[in-house]
Amino acid sequence: MFVAQIRLAAVGMTESRAGILRLIGGDSLKPRGVWTEDKVEAQATTTTESEDGQDDDDAPTASGAEDPYERYRKMLKVGVPRQTVEERMRIDGVNNAGLDGANMKGALHPEQTLAPIASDVPVMKTKRRRWHWTEVSKADRAPPPLEGSLWMQVNEKEAHQRLTAPSQAYIQELYVREIGNIVESSKRAPLKRNARTASTIQRPSRPKSTRTVQILKGNKAVNLELAVNRITSPFADVAKDVNILTAMYLQDTDVRTILAMWPSMAEEIALEEYSEDFEALKLSEQFLVTIRAVPMAKEKLECLLLKLELPSRAENLKQAAGLVTRALNQLCSSPKFTKVMQLLRDFGNLANEEFVENYRARFSLESLAKMSHTKSFDNKNSMLDGFLHVLWMENDGKLSDFYDEINLVLQCKSVSVDGLTSEMNQLREGYDLVKSVALASSDASDDGAKLAQKAFTQFADDVDDKLRGVQTSLDIMNISKRKFQSWFEEDARAPLDQHLKAIVHFALAAKTKNSLLN
Questions:
Q1: Where is this region: Disordered (predicted)?
Q2: Residue 132 needs a FRET pair 20 to 30 A away by CA distance; which of 67, 223, 318, 517 works?
């Protein structure tokens, strides 16, 4: 009779516990630390025996049979958030203090078991769009100047306070979303499908192989004859001009065409073996026969082309090196650009939520090019757009026209520092060729060879003087380059073009946005 009453009283509680179990783990999870019919019957039996005065020391107790925390620890292992597990323990009347292995005494709170059970507890998470910036490792970082680099000018501890509250709220609005477990899980599958679809669309198909069109000898003859037709002087005078580098009869375009259409080895053999009437040859073949009579004709044509191009090539190289030098000096001395980069560092730490555990004290300038890759949740604004808007909000917008202080950098848009180095190497190769021709001409004793040796020796001295002036400009540029790398603590091995290109893109985007807002 007494057992039946206890069972009847526990029916409601048992059904409630079963419903909870189905919510968090299904019927496959066995309830632990709660009332069940087996435990009710065991307690009733124990109560009856105690009333009769019959104590059984070998009977197991209900509290010592199972670990009430085992189920919750398993939930943590499979990835359930700790906040959700602790909320479930509170509902079940289990003290969460023992979840980490503390004393289990007093773990159960029967007085809490009758509390109303929420049907769904929303647990909010944050989803964040991140700027994938990079930082140069300490081992590869150029040493900062004695007075400190750009990144050392502000206090790291106050980083989270330098951006105003409106700017922080704007960043949160664009790049941070709060999502629940149910919403997140329901969207997870479509996102995966979209990713698979996107990957399928973005994967380019293998281009079909096309047959290479081979240029015939007839085309070479036509192109060469077009260049030869522009020559109005006798071919013998042109050959003498090539031999002593007077550069009186040929233009640089003509020399380039002749060198590009120079006969192959088989064609040269055919020209050498030709013994018929010279006038019977076409005009282009007559020109080749005459020019090839000059010793080292092709090499001397290349030297003639260098003589025609050297003044402009050397001057352009010096001007480009000087422009890059002044642009680098602007970047290191501009107060506004310095503040913009420091503000951008705080913006990136806030957007990526890296203020606490993974604070970035510096970043590589090549990261500027990656700001356009990250979009906001509405897909209307990139990370670059968001920062330029913040730039307007901070300091009354006084930093938004920073590009005016680095205007020379914008002029470097079409300049390649690697290209300057390559151009200098080509000029040096031309200088070596001129010296080799001068040396080879000194071995002959005829009058033509002596004139050629004198002309090429003089030209070699002229080339050397020009290259010395160009090298001075390049040396000054390299000094500014090292200063730039030290100021921004960049990798000295990284190509300078990569940094300049990213800065130009960043500054032009700011200039465009500024013009739209004004």
A1: 35-70, 190-209
A2: 517
